[in-house]
Design a protein that fits this description.
Number of helices: 19
Distance between the termini: 71 Å
Structural class: alpha/beta
Number of strands: 7
CATH architecture of the largest domain: 3-Layer(aba) Sandwich
Order of helices and strands: HHEHEHEHHEHHEHEHHEHHHHHHHH
Number of domains: 4
Length: about 475
């Protein structure tokens, strides 16, 4: 079994057809979808006529089936789909993990695939898990087999293939991007496991708040949901053995789920008021420079399964709205965090988000830029803002000179210290002040410069406005 995606399809040897009572197979293994109809989620990549569906159904083009790179978070079905590619069309299935396999293993698979094709007319599917762990040289070893269709390569990765997989291999494969399962799809996975004979076979009931908590902590990962459910069922059976519960079927409660996963239920509804309340508390804690409170609310959002990209966007906004030019590097940190979160995902994204939150919370604060644009927009909406002064108008087209556009404009770089004394605002706004720097952080230096510039431009110093 691969470490990345236990929520996969049945192994080609028929292991998934064994009944649940046969032994120690984890619930997530026993509940692997055996057919396309059992797969939850991924409707977009499994739609009729899609490359992946055609590959699974055994469609053959003039040059044979394409290989596929499957990219997605853990527990979304990468191994499932790889097994379905092998079993649906009666192909030979070979599974390798890039963690332990090397070039010698790959060449061995290629040699066996040639024999299988020549002797038995069977295609070989090579499922390579965590392909991003292969070096460039190791990935190069895959190219001849993929190019000649000796094997159908189905490679799984949790990292962006654009950065982790060599271009020649990408160009010879279709890229299939999987998404985390929705809450509703996770509920279907959990409910099926409760009743299916391969799963818990009706031996347990699950309290609604316990189900909600399982969905929250799973973060779109079906394997995690089933693993947590199985652990909670074990806790419930311990209660029966201890004589504290005698119900049949055995109930699984929220407390037992919490005990099983050692994680308290987070009182947070992503679709309700608390979604906005906790997000608001995070922003206001950063604005208020309480770094500990900010980290607390960040933790609550993450543990509740909030989309880390949503959190990252809020941090970027706060970096401009509340920190601004008092520490311009806060925006750089926040934007870098937003891009990193999109590439990396959870759980590591929590570290990046924490760094951005800490930077925002500890930085000196200024909303001068935020207040400035709001004031300027208010004037525009009020109808203020006459014609652009003639010397600032565009003069790079025929007839502009005849209209007087650009006449009298002073090029700033020709002036001492690079500042030209001339009118920039429209006549009815001459003297208006929108940006007033504070005396906090880097903006203290900008305050002194803005006062100097006001004098050079013949305007009132900003402190006098």
């Amino acid at each position: 079994m691969t470490s990345d995606d236990l929520f996969g399809a049945a192994a080609a040897d028929g292991a998934a057809d064994r009944p649940a009572s046969s032994g120690a197979a984890p619930l997530a293994v026993r509940m692997r979808p055996r057919t396309l109809e059992e797969v939850r989620g991924q409707a977009a990549v499994l739609r009729p006529g899609s490359p992946l569906r055609r590959l699974i159904e055994g469609a053959r083009g003039a040059a044979g089936p394409l290989s596929a790179i499957i990219w997605g978070p853990p527990g979304t079905g990468k191994t499932t789909l790889a097994h379905l590619v092998a079993t649906a069309a009666d192909r030979t299935f070979v599974e390798l993990s890039a963690v332990t396999a090397g070039v010698k293993d790959v060449r061995g698979v290629m040699e066996s695939a040639v024999r299988g094709r020549e002797l038995y007319g069977r295609q070989t599917v090579l499922f390579l898990d965590e392909i991003h762990r292969f070096t460039k040289a190791q990935q190069d070893a895959l190219l001849p087999g993929v190019e000649n269709r000796t094997v159908i390569l189905v490679a799984a990765t949790t990292e962006n293939p654009s950065f982790s997989i060599i271009a020649p291999l990408m160009s010879r494969s279709v890229l299939v991007t999987l998404q985390s399962l929705s809450d509703a799809e996770l509920v279907e996975v959990i409910d099926a496991a409760l009743t299916d004979e391969r799963g818990l076979d009706g031996a347990h009931t699950l309290a609604p708040d316990a189900r909600d908590h399982l969905v929250r902590i799973s973060g779109g990962d079906a394997r995690r949901a089933l693993t947590s459910l199985e652990a909670a069922a074990g806790v419930a059976l311990d209660a029966v053995a201890a004589g504290t519960v005698s119900d049949d079927p055995v109930p699984i409660t929220l407390a037992q789920v919490e005990q099983a996963v050692a994680q308290a239920a987070v009182r947070y509804d992503r679709a309700g008021d608390q979604h906005y309340d906790v997000a608001s508390a995070l922003i206001k804690s950063m604005r208020g420079s309480d770094v500990d409170a900010a980290l607390h609310y960040l933790a609550r959002m993450l543990e509740a399964g909030e989309d880390p990209r949503f959190i990252a966007r809020r941090i970027v906004i706060a970096a401009s709205e509340d920190v601004g030019m008092a520490d311009p590097t806060a925006l750089q940190t926040a934007v870098a965090a937003m891009h990193a979160v999109a590439q990396i995902g959870m759980p590591e994204a929590r570290i990046i988000l924490a760094q951005a939150v800490v930077h925002n919370a500890l930085a000196p604060k200024s909303n001068a830029a935020y207040a400035g644009i709001n004031a300027a927009i208010a004037d525009v909406r009020a109808g203020r803002g006459a014609a652009v002064p003639p010397h600032l108008r565009g003069s790079g087209y025929a007839g502009a000179e005849r209209l007087g556009h650009g006449a009298g404009y002073v090029y700033s770089h020709d002036e001492p210290e690079g500042v030209a004394r001339q009118q920039y605002l429209p006549d009815d706004l001459e003297g208006a002040t929108y940006y007033t720097p504070t005396d906090r952080g880097f903006e203290e230096r900008l305050r002194a410069r803005s006062q100097w510039l006001a004098g050079r431009l013949g305007r009132r110093p900003r402190d006098e406005t």
